[in-house]
Design a protein that fits this description.
Structural class of chain A: mainly alpha
Strand content of chain A: under 5%
Shape of chain A: globular
CATH superfamily of chain A: Farnesyl Diphosphate Synthase
Helix content of chain A: over 70%
Number of domains of chain A: 1
Oligomer: homodimer
CATH class of chain A: Mainly Alpha
Number of strands of chain A: 2
Largest sheet of chain A: 2 strands, antiparallel
Number of helices of chain A: 16
CATH architecture of chain A: Orthogonal Bundle
């Protein structure tokens, strides 16, 4: 199967699942549900759930066994975007070319929508019908919560808010703010496939760490090079806010070289998977040669 | 054992557990961890974890089997308070007589602290060493996530933000915003005790619903009657903001009567527990005769 076909097949599962969970019951608040649906169903690259599906598939998991983790990691990601966009945080008016959640529904409803999405992520892992046993579900919850909390994504956002000045700090911030959840995504795929060998975990984490950092540096580069129409946010916004980036600290050429090196490390890590790693290789290639 | 002794014994377990989890690893952000610790370790009545311990104890559960659920429900409650206090929400400067989290650490860090606390709640249930099997842990996660999400606490906050005008709306708002988590607390105690008979669940839910609503009406009454020194927030704040309350809609006397009726319903629901329900009865009595 080609990557494009697998992506269509796998990610096509998400919206129907989301719609099923976002409606709520008769108890729920219509406006809150609208704010949530607006943010979840607005497209996006869905890199994290795709990584769950691709990794699980490489270890022979069925797609339905990967649904809970794939849904949950995307909901965690979306909640973090809604909160990051708030005026008190990054103060962004646009997300994926559309007004951000708080611009449409108010800051209060954006805070609430993010909160409720995080909750929903864990509820889905605990309850969504799928061929997963209780121990697998608990491991998925453990990995996802650890990656998104005070030792992961939330810490990365805190470091970002306080400001970074050195390459070490910037790298740490990227590893926590984005890397932790990408890293978790491959683990979630392996756990859902019930294939947790030490070799698999170590290799796939190395893969995820490499593409995670490369993805961020690529983002920095696109921010300098890409027009607004492609990236969906005003060009050069990071520079305008005097935000420290890889190209700013080590230059454009060295940043490009770093992306290439990380890409090659990522491919090396997949070697042991042989033919089963093909789609993950294509995915890395797509991710690091994207124009937006 | 007397209620005061049990309360000291049970709630005394929480701070050491919280401290263990709030420190984070070397990866984490010191300021974020401080904002979290400031909010979690500032006292508070800890009614929800106490209800977990009391219910579990009534069904012969050991205290250590109740720790994960007790910790988690309090962390969910604290996260909701931090977010509710934000300028974009209720805009409160004081909580328990001290400056609110965002006044001390900034809105951004208050948002992040709340987010990370919610995450931590689920991580603790999934991982904290306790005599609970995987299925019990998953049920705890299910009950807690359902009670705090779009069909529970978050919906209640949304309804509150949009404003209520009738007694039905006010009651629904109370049932979701506060009631859902109190209701969950008794379920969590029963699940952790591995005693999920239909009779137990139905009776304890009736108990929790009655004391939950009574607790809120009592809050409304205290808000009119109590001085600032006792309630820890400026007196009459709900009236100043033209907030609809029980006394405003049905009068002080009828509100007091309603509290009495609900109290008596709560006691009736515990009848089947016999001597085992004694501490829960005393707890209801304490809760509804409190002066703050």
């Amino acid at each position: 199967m080609k990557l494009a076909d697998f992506t269509t097949l796998a990610l096509g599962r998400l919206d129907p699942l989301f719609k099923q969970y976002l409606i709520g019951s008769s108890h729920s608040s219509e406006k809150l549900n609208e704010a949530i649906a607006y943010s979840v169903l607005n497209g996006g690259k869905r890199i994290r759930p795709l990584l769950v599906y691709l990794t699980g598939h490489a270890f022979n998991a069925s797609l339905d066994s990967l649904d809970p983790a794939a849904c949950a990691v995307e909901l965690i990601h979306v909640y973090s975007l809604i909160h990051d966009d708030l005026p008190a945080m990054d103060n962004s008016d646009l997300r994926r070319g559309k007004p951000t959640c708080h611009k449409v529904f108010s800051d209060a409803f954006a805070i609430l929508a993010g909160d409720a999405l995080q909750t929903l992520a864990f509820e889905i892992i605990a309850t969504h019908p799928a061929p997963l046993n209780a121990n697998q579900r608990l491991k998925v919850i453990h990995v996802l919560s650890h990656a998104s909390g005070i030792d992961g994504m939330a810490a990365g956002q805190a470091i970002d808010l306080l400001g970074v000045t050195t390459l070490d700090q910037l790298t740490k911030m990227y590893q926590l703010k984005t890397g932790a959840l990408l890293n978790a995504s491959v683990k979630l795929g392996i756990i859902s496939a019930n294939s947790e060998s030490e070799q698999a975990l170590t290799a796939l984490q190395c893969f995820a760490e490499s593409i995670g950092l490369a993805f961020q540096i690529q983002d920095d580069l696109l921010d300098i090079e890409g027009p607004k129409e492609i990236t969906g946010k005003p060009q050069g916004i990071d520079n305008a806010n005097a935000k420290i980036t890889y190209p700013l600290l080590i230059g454009v050429e060295q940043s490009r070289q770093k992306v290439k090196d990380l890409f090659s490390e990522a491919l090396d890590a997949l070697e042991f998977l042989g033919k089963n790693g093909q789609l993950l290789r294509e995915f890395a290639d797509y991710l690091l040669h994207r124009k937006k």
